[in-house]
C-alpha cells in the first residue's frame, strides 16, 4: 500500500504542469530607483562607460527633486579623491578655473588615458546647476571614489600599481565611513564590473578570490548585507538575433525603465539565454569564465535592469575635445599611458574622430 501511495505521489508530481515564472515589474526608471532607496541605503548603478543614454539619465535623475531631498549623496568613479575640495567648491557654486576643475576627472588612477566622455563630465555641471537652486544644507554632496593620486610625483608603474590595487577597497571604505556609518543614502555610479558577483559567493573565506581582489560589491555585501541594490544597464547582445528576440519579448518598456526582479521572473531565462552574450569573448579567457562574466553584464545577478532602448538605438557619448585642443594636456596623458601600459597615444586624436552627431555604441 505504501509503495502504491509513493508511486501515485511521484506520478502526480511529474504530471503537474510547470508553474510559469511571473513577469517582472516595469516602471519608470526614476520611480524605480527612488522606490529602491526606501529599503536600501545604497543603489549601485553599473556604468557601461560612454553610453550616452545612461549618462543622460544621470542628469535627469539628479534634477528630480526627490534626489536632493531623499538621497543627497552621489559617489562617482570618474573623480579623483585628491580633488575632493575642488569638486566641493565647484558643485556649491564657486568659480573654479577649468584647468583646476579638469583635474577632478583627469587625475584618476583607473581611466585610460583619462575620463573623456562628455556626458560623464557634464554630470558635475548638472549637479552644480541643481545645487544653485537649493539652500546649502539641502544640496547634493559629490563623493569622489577613485583613490587619491598625485600624478606629477608618479614616475614608475609600481608607484601607480599600489593605487590601482585600491580602486575597490578605497570607495568601499569611503562608503562605509561617510554614508553607511553616518546613516546616509547614496547613489553609487561605477563601472559594471565593480558590481559583479563572484562565482564562489561573497564570503571572504571563498577559495576563488583573495581579500585584495574583492570588488566593491563583495566588500559592501560582506559587511553590510542588504544595503546595496544593484542595477545593470541593458546593452543587448553581440548576436543580433539574440537582441531581437529579447527585445521582441520585452514587456512593453518605454525607455528609460527599470525592470525587476530578474531572478525568479520570466526575464531570468531570457537574460541567461544559451549562446546570447552582451560582450565579446577575449581569447585568453576560458569559456566558463566568459559565460559567467557575460551573464553578469547581462544583469543576471543584479536586482534590476535599466532599459534605455533597443541595442541598435544606443549611442556613444561624444568626447570632450581636450586631447586635440590642448596639446600640453595630451602630452601628459600620453606620459601616463606609457607609464601604465608601456605604450602611449598612437596619434593625436582629430576632431573628425569625435563627431557631434550621435554614433552607434555597438556595431550590430
Describe this structure in words.
Strands 1-7-8-6-2-5-3-4 form an 8-stranded mixed β-sheet, with helices on both faces. Strands 9-10 form a two-stranded antiparallel ribbon. It is globular. The N and C termini lie far apart (62 Å). It has one domain (20-359). Helix 3 packs parallel to helix 8 (118-132). The protein is α/β, with parallel strands linked by helices and 364 residues long. The chain has 16 helices and 10 strands.
Helix coverage percent: 25-40%
Structural class estimated from helices and strands: alpha/beta
User: What does the average pLDDT come to?
Assistant: 87
Strand portion: 5-15%
Order of H and E elements: HEHEHHEHHHHEHHEHEHEHHEEHHE
End-to-end CA span: 62 Å
User: What are the segments in which pLDDT stays under 50 over at least 5 consecutive residues?
Assistant: 1-16, 200-208
Read across the widest sheet, the strand sequence of neighbours is 1-7-8-6-2-5-3-4
Shape: globular
Q: What is the count of distinct domains?
A: 1
Total helical elements: 16
Give a short account of the largest sheet.
Answer: 8 strands, mixed
| Rounded radius of gyration (Å) | 22 Å
Q: Please give the number of β-strands.
A: 10
Key descriptive features of the protein:
364 residues, 8-stranded mixed β-sheet, 10 strands, alpha/beta, 16 helices, two-stranded antiparallel ribbon
Amino acid at each position: 500500500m505504501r509503495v502504491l501511495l509513493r508511486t501515485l505521489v511521484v506520478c502526480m508530481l511529474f504530471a503537474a504542469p510547470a508553474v510559469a515564472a511571473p513577469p517582472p515589474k516595469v516602471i519608470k526608471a526614476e520611480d524605480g530607483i527612488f522606490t529602491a532607496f526606501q529599503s536600501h541605503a545604497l543603489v549601485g548603478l553599473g556604468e557601461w562607460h560612454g553610453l550616452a543614454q545612461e549618462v543622460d539619465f544621470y542628469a535627469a535623475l539628479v534634477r528630480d527633486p526627490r534626489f536632493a531631498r531623499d538621497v543627497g549623496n552621489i559617489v562617482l568613479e570618474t573623480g579623483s579623491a585628491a580633488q575632493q575640495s575642488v569638486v566641493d567648491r565647484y558643485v556649491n557654486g564657486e568659480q573654479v578655473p577649468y584647468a583646476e576643475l579638469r583635474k577632478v576627472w583627469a587625475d584618476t588612477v583607473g581611466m585610460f588615458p583619462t575620463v573623456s566622455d562628455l556626458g560623464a563630465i557634464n554630470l558635475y555641471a548638472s549637479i552644480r546647476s541643481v545645487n544653485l537652486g537649493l539652500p546649502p544644507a539641502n544640496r547634493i554632496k559629490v563623493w569622489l571614489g577613485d583613490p587619491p593620486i598625485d600624478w606629477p610625483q608618479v614616475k614608475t608603474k609600481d608607484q601607480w600599481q599600489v593605487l590601482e590595487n585600491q580602486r575597490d577597497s578605497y570607495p568601499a571604505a569611503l562608503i562605509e565611513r561617510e554614508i553607511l556609518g553616518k546613516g546616509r543614502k547614496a547613489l553609487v555610479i561605477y563601472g559594471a564590473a565593480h558590481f559583479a558577483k563572484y562565482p564562489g559567493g561573497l564570503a571572504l573565506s571563498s577559495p576563488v578570490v583573495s581579500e585584495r581582489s574583492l570588488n566593491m560589491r563583495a566588500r559592501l555585501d560582506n559587511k553590510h548585507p542588504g544595503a546595496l541594490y544593484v542595477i545593470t544597464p541593458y546593452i543587448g547582445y553581440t548576436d543580433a538575433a539574440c537582441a531581437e528576440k529579447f527585445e521582441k519579448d520585452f514587456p512593453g518598456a518605454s525607455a528609460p525603465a527599470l525592470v525587476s526582479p530578474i531572478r525568479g521572473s520570466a526575464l531570468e531565462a531570457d537574460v541567461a539565454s544559451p549562446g546570447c552574450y552582451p560582450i565579446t569573448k577575449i581569447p585568453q579567457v576560458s569559456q566558463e569564465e566568459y559565460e559567467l562574466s557575460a551573464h553578469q553584464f547581462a544583469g543576471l545577478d543584479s536586482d534590476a535592469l535599466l532599459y534605455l532602448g533597443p541595442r541598435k538605438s544606443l549611442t556613444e557619448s561624444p568626447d570632450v575635445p581636450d586631447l586635440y585642443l590642448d596639446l600640453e594636456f595630451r602630452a601628459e596623458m600620453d606620459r601616463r599611458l606609457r607609464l601604465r601600459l608601456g605604450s602611449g597615444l598612437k596619434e593625436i586624436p582629430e576632431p573628425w574622430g569625435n563627431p557631434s552627431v550621435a554614433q552607434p555604441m555597438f556595431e550590430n
